[in-house]
Amino acid sequence: MDDEYIRERKRLIAEDRSLRVDALALAQATDAEKRAEEIVRRVRAEENDTVWGPDAPPIPGSMHVFPGMGFLTARDTILKTKLFEVVSKMPKGALLHAHLDAMVDARVLLRSALKYPAMHVRTAEKLTLANLRATLPEFRPLPENEWTSFESLVDDAYEPGTWVPLTSARETFGFGGPDAFDDWVVAALTINPSESYVTHNTVDKIWKTFGTTFAVGRGMSRYFPIYEDYLREFFRSSIEGGISYIESRMPLWYRYMIGPDGQENIPHREWMLAYDRAIKEVKEEFAQQGRGDEFLGSKVIYCTLRIATCEELDWYLEDCIALKQEFPHLICGFDLVGHEDPLKPLIYYIDPLKRFVQRQKEVGVHIPFIFHAGETLGDGTPADMNLYDAILLGTKRIGHGFSLVKHPRIMEICREREIAVEVCPISNEILRYTGSMPMHPLPILMNQGVHVALSSDDPAMFGNLGLSFDFFQVLVASEVTGLITLREISRDSLTYSCLDLEDKARALALHGQRWSKLIEWIISKFSGHLKA
Ligand SMILES: O=c1[nH]cnc2c1ncn2[C@@H]1O[C@H](CO)[C@@H](O)[C@H]1O
């Protein structure tokens, strides 16, 4: 072939790639990193054939098997791959987009609820084998004088709407006993493949199902004793998945949680105190195991819903400022959540949001906006236009930004002002913003030099607990993205976090040490792949 052509081709590729977000990291990679990178590429190429290729074993429930296919059907297969073993060992940096009420495995949440005799359950209809899947359980802790002695949700005498103690409802459950009860509850707390890919296969439809999973879970997680268990479990499981710091979006639109006495009487400041306690306890636990460096703590992004009126929002904004004054180390941002397409756009809230900025100056606090924006398939719709308002309001990062790639100037601003995008690939796919990973806009962002932080969004509902699954889906669906790119993304999650400068420097240094260990491990475990 023409040498000159090849040189020109190389130059063009290099020029194009030099704009990428990981260009510097690739240029500065050590020899060991390059070796590990090559190993991971070979493992991926091999599994592209053996696991995801046309001759690979079929995956039940899926007509088409390919790298980056629908997560809910691919999950069990992913767990068996070598590539997943590698990704699982990776230090992930920070988890920056995580809805707090969607962070603990459904079975673990149910197990926690079963510990408390105040917990009761009911259904709005009499359960039959035919309506079981469509009928949702409702949970609630009751004050002791309202505890009931009904035994079963399924006997003939059950009156729909009556509360039954959770443990007896489980023991006496028909349709297969306690295990069937657990499966029924877990199904109500999670999204399954047939919902996402068949019966509710559009953004609007799947959001309806998604909403009910929150409603069911909230009956348990809003009970303060369960919330306290929940936080510790969330931190522990995140650390086990290689996450060293978390900014969680806390659902503060409820003014009270339900206390141990079954009354709605636990105000927001108690939620924060419990959050602090949980961080401290989990830190101590890990320090005792000699793993103190694996967890740097967690902060809270104050969230209310995009259904609030402007007057209501004013209350929340003042509440947010009061919490920031009392817990300056904890509150790190403000956001509005909920399905962007049908709910109120940011422009609707401009007056209260501007007042919030002014009020912060008056009282001398700083609470950055960290807005969800552009989580939509729309082009010029109000949800898509949220990106303009998020930028004008000075958002520190963008949550989702699924439609960001339609906006060249906004992408440029993201580069100039170093506004990172919290990208949630698996969430986007399950909620039907993208059919699969190869259709996801993430590579467009990275190729154009926009910094991203990969996030799991609502892993309790989606089954992508930890960050390994999201990193996996990204790695497997791109030829350009390799191990070093993942390192860069995981570092960026720390760089664009709300950690103060000193903590950030420490976090990045610890990440570097863990990264070196990962590289050694990959080389010692998989170097056979280099010979083939
Ligand atoms: O991806 C998302 N985009 C916007 N809102 C979300 C997303 N995931 C969850 N929530 C919203 O946050 C609340 C739980 O904290 C839920 O009510 C849900 O509507």
TrEMBL record:
Protein EC: 3.5.4.4
Top-tier EC class: hydrolase
GO cellular component, one term: extracellular region
Subcellular location field: Secreted
InterPro entries for this protein: A/AMP_deam_AS, A_deaminase_dom, Ado/ade_deaminase, Metal_Hydrolase
Record-stated family: Belongs to the metallo-dependent hydrolases superfamily. Adenosine and AMP deaminases family. ADGF subfamily.
Protein name: Adenosine deaminase
Organism: Lentinus brumalis
